[in-house]
Amino acid sequence: MDLFIDTANIDEIREAAQWGVIAGVTTNPSLIAKEGRDHKAVILEIAEIVDGPISIETISLDAEGMLKEAHEFAQWTPNAVIKVPMTEAGMQVVSKLSAEGIKTNVTLVFSANQALLAALAGATYISPFVGRLDDIGESGMGLIAEIREIYDQYFFDTHILTASVRHPRHVTEAAKLGSDVATIPYKVLKQMFQHPLTESGIEKFLADWKKYTHA
Ligand code: G3P
Asked: 213 C-alpha to center of ligand 1: Å?
């Protein structure tokens, strides 16, 4: 399973890129707005740091507007993946972009039927939001399992990109269920490195080294 970082913060992306574990970046209007900077400038800076796919989300709700934005974003970087919402207009745009060879990420996926529609439209990625489903008492991971089963049964090559990840356990579960990618906030990515036994183990090794090796 690949890991993407779910942020538009350049410092976070730069740091995570150095760890050698992230294969791409996902952004959305909320994440871009949080940075308070020009959309294009942020994306161009991300493209200088990361070689892999960069999801850039459209804002328009109608197909014509979405398509116009998609064509503009696709010029910004060859790594652009056009993120569109799971709507009728969105799927119309996905099928057009797919025919043009432009990669897409269908976002705000909350059901297996939506994932089926996105795959039929030719989406490159779909983003089921597991955290937001958990928030309303549904099972985010149950959805990942259902989509995996459906995609495998019919050999769809649309990639499952687990999104709205809130904690490290979501990442483990997504990996076990065969999600192709998980996009992870910086904070959760940092948490994944941590284990108290790793920390205490390092302390003990160093303490022993100091005691006996240099006597
Ligand atoms: O990139 C979209 C997604 O990951 C949003 O997450 O935490 O706002 O539900 P969240």
From this structure: 49
Atom of ligand 1 nearest to the CA of 107: 2
DSSP state of 129: B
Distance 65 CA to ligand 1 centre (A): 23
Query: Residue type at 72?
Result: E
Closest residue (by CA) to atom 7 of ligand 1? 164
pLDDT in tens, 168-215: 999 999 999 999 999 999 999 999 999 999 999 999 999 999 888 765
Predicted TM-score of the model (pTM): 0.95
Type of residue found at 55? S
| Tens digit of each residue's pLDDT (9 = 90 or more) over 49-101 | 999 999 999 999 999 999 999 999 999 999 999 999 999 999 999 999 999 99
Mutation test of ligand 1: which of 6, 32, 109, 133 has the most ligand atoms closer than 8 Å to its C-beta? 6
Q: How many residues does the chain have?
A: 215
The answer to whether the beta carbons of residues 55 and 102 sit under 8 Å apart is: no
Residue partners of 107: CB distance under 8 A and separation at least 6: 28, 55, 57, 83, 84, 85, 86, 127, 129, 163
Q: How far apart are CA 46 and CA 175, in angstroms?
A: 26
Q: Whose CA is nearest to atom 3 of ligand 1?
A: 164
